């Protein structure tokens, strides 16, 4: 794992590697948020009836 990170940093640069890491972790957070939002919408529709 460390070797892969070091290779990526030397190939494309530190800022690009950090940006890629942050975007992938942000995407995971957004996926969780979307799932929870969908659950909330379903609950609100149940109360609407």
Which key features would you list for this structure?
49 residues; mainly alpha
In short, what is this structure?
With 49 residues, this protein is an all-alpha fold.
Q: How can the largest sheet be summarized?
A: none
Task: List the domain count as a whole number.
Answer: 1
- Structural class given helices, strands, pairing? mainly alpha
Low-confidence stretches: none
The number of distinct β-strands equals 0
Q: How far from one another are the termini?
A: 52 Å
Proportion of β residues? under 5%
Which percent bin holds the helix content?
over 70%
Nearest-integer average pLDDT: 87
Order of helices and strands: HH
Radius of gyration: 19 Å
Shape: rod-shaped
| Secondary structure tally, helices | 2
Model description:
By secondary structure, this protein is mostly helical. The protein has one domain. It is built from 2 helices and no strands. The chain has helices at 2-12, 14-48. α1 crosses α2 (14-48). It is rod-shaped and about 60 Å long. The chain starts with a helix and ends with a helix. The chain crosses the membrane at residues 6-23. Keywords: Membrane, Transmembrane, Transmembrane helix.
